[in-house]
Write a structure and sequence with these properties.
By secondary structure, this protein is an alpha/beta fold. It contains twelve helices and 15 strands.
């Protein structure tokens, strides 16, 4: 809020706080707003008038009134504003639109092929964003902004995707330059894992969340963390690259040049390599059959084999879970979160969380207070990154609020 006076900053904070308080209650009276927020009726009326002028709230009558004049209640206008989020990775592009109540009103997934170049990537992103605009139609003018969650390493100043190990043809792709030419809205570029916790903060928790970590196990192992309701970021806008920490007993060569990184043990490419190595010496016969029928490896085939009781696959899953639990123990030492959410297709294995719980209890019981740790699946499935990106736009527009007292 640079350039604003103290009074203007205070007004923004109270306006945003009222929006989030109304969202949390659905419908609320002026009197309740005054009492709960501890501000005067004059201030509440001023905020309400400001929000009504911008079509962000409306007044409605209490449906359960017993007679006489029905009291006036305040509620958000769902189509008062929209927030678009797009996330892409090696698998494809997911795109989401949230309305003012932070409800998902649009979602779409587009799968990538193996032949797409950097120009194909940009064109695909443009098509998905144009599909969002077409969906909004005449309400396009209420689109507050767009956030793009990109994998790999980014140059935030130039808006360039510098390096992504799974799609080297996308390296040094100038994402933002082209998009800002095509779309005249605020556009934000962030790492896809870094936007994911915003989905939990704003859509699941209405802006006030406990200390938590989003642990993503896909083509790399990465985390993003919130503490005291704020995202933890380093001096260079970088954090959570735990995939390149060392795993005890591992000596596999990582793309970073070191040996024994978590990325060589628990990620989708690591599992593919282990299974192919095993097939070459006569193991993973059931997986070999599934891969032959499907035309290659997918993580879905691996979890299918585990759910079918395939011995070799289950042994590999146990090893993978043990290594993920080792990473979780490091996270707990460093951050001590209340919740760890895991985003991975590995949890398509029906016993994934039971196996994880058992492993943590047996191996790490004395190393940290596991009994107080809540481990759960991340929300929104394959759309987590897109929902998080859209929620990040909301955070930029309405995220600065008066923090509730402890």
């Amino acid at each position: 809020m640079a350039g604003k006076t103290f009074k203007e900053q205070s007004q923004v904070l109270w306006i945003n706080t009222c929006i989030n308080f109304i969202r949390g209650h659905g419908k609320i009276s002026r009197t309740t707003l005054c009492n709960e927020l501890g501000i005067s009726i004059t201030s509440v009326n001023s905020i309400i008038n400001w929000l009504k002028e911008r079509h962000l709230i409306r007044e409605c009558s209490a449906e359960d009134s017993t007679g006489g004049r029905k009291p006036s209640l305040i509620s958000l206008v769902p189509d008062g504003a929209f927030f678009a989020g797009l996330e892409f990775s090696a698998d494809g592009i997911s795109c989401v639109v949230l309305d003012m109540t932070r409800t998902v009103v649009y979602k779409r997934f587009r799968q990538f092929t193996d032949a797409e170049s950097s120009s194909d990537l940009i064109a695909a992103i443009e098509r998905e964003l144009n599909a969002v605009i077409a969906f909004l139609g005449e309400q396009e003018k209420r689109l507050v902004g767009i956030a793009v969650g990109a994998p790999g390493y980014l140059d935030y100043e130039s808006g360039m995707l510098l390096f992504y190990s799974q799609r080297e043809e996308w390296n040094n792709t100038p994402l933002m330059a082209r998009l800002r030419e095509q779309f005249h809205y605020p556009i934000f570029l962030l790492n896809n894992v870094d936007v994911m916790p915003y989905a939990y903060k704003w859509v699941s928790c209405n802006g006030s969340c406990e200390d938590h970590v989003m642990l993503v196990v896909r083509y790399g192992l990465k985390m993003s963390a919130f503490a005291s309701n704020r995202q933890i970021k380093g001096a260079h806008n970088f954090m959570g690259e735990i995939g390149h920490m060392h795993v005890n007993g591992s000596n596999r060569l990582c793309r970073c040049g070191k040996h024994g990184c978590f990325d060589t043990e628990v990620t989708y490419p690591a599992l593919k390599q282990k299974i192919e190595d095993g097939i070459s010496v006569g193991h993973f016969k059931y997986m070999a059959k599934l891969m032959e029928e499907a035309g290659g490896f997918t993580i879905d085939l691996f979890t299918q084999a585990c759910n079918s009781g395939d011995r070799d696959s289950l042994m590999l899953m146990e090893e993978t879970v043990r290594n993920i639990c080792s990473a979780i123990s490091w996270i707990c030492y460093m951050i001590d979160p209340a919740v760890i959410m895991i985003s991975s297709k590995l949890d398509q294995f029906n016993g994934f969380y039971d196996m994880m719980s058992d492993t943590l209890y047996r191996i790490y019981e004395n190393n940290f207070t596991y009994g107080k740790l809540n481990i759960q699946p991340a929300p929104f499935g394959e759309y987590l990154g897109a929902v998080g990106a859209a929620a990040y736009v909301y955070d930029k527009a309405y995220g600065r609020i008066i923090e509730p007292e402890a």
